[in-house]
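hi support,

uploading two proteins for the ticket. first:
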Amino acid sequence: MATLLLPPRSGNASRSRVLAVLLTVLLALAMTLIDATPSQATVYNRRLRNLTTDKCLDIPGTDAPTMGTSVIQYLCGPWAAQRWDFVDGVEGFLIKNTLNPDLCLDAPGTDAPRKATVGFYPCQDTTADNQLWTQEWNSTGTAFLVVNVKSKRAGRPACLDVAGMREIDNFLRIGVYPCTTSLDDDHYWWFD
């Protein structure tokens, strides 16, 4: 980055240096803001709405999820079954339903997932399992991919996905599928 230097006036050399430093700092800050995308941080008690289907991540029924409970998409509403916490983990975040914060969204097994339905299992904040996720924002910063950390580390990123392609039916299962940034599929989500 180039530093803007102004020619010193007589008796004002120190003021010119201060101004040059200040302008350099402001320019650096402006460059940082231009490249900024929304940050990843803990988010509590929010709905996760799919950009394509306009449905929300949900658990079937009204009871708290138990081990193995699947996840579906459903018409968005005020129900606790659609409230999620994204909690900072060792790498990325854990996804918990507010009805049972002891269980986390998990792809089956411990290998890097490719195509599988997701469910709830006891939370393990470790990269050895499939419970850690990251956000990858679109170019406008309005929606994001929910990417499984283990699959991304293996070089085969798998994203949270609604079964089918652009399917809007209620009760469709949520899984992981190889990530695509195409808006023709249903991989983008946003906090509602």
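and the second one:
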Amino acid sequence: QNESIKTKNKEFDSKIDRLLHHTLIDMRESLVESKKNADETDQMVQEALDEIEKKNRTIDSYSQEALQIQEENDKQLISVMKFKNDRRKEERKLNNLMEIFVESIQTL
């Protein structure tokens, strides 16, 4: 009877060992699959980050270009306003000369 118990214990230990072995194999396969999924997710996240960075650089480039255009437009506006102001001064001078000319002719 003692021998029978020992045999049953060995059989039981053998079954537990096989069960543990299969459980460990299943856990390993699950971990490998999880690692694979995590790597794929990391890759997708990195690609998304790269795309966002690329778009940000494009936006920054457009913003810089817009600022340069705005600066050029401001310079042109200042130049036009200065020209207009100079033109008004010349017009006033011409009007003053015309008045002097008209007064001169009237006094003659």
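thanks. also noticed: The CA atoms of residues 10 and 107 lie 142 Å apart.
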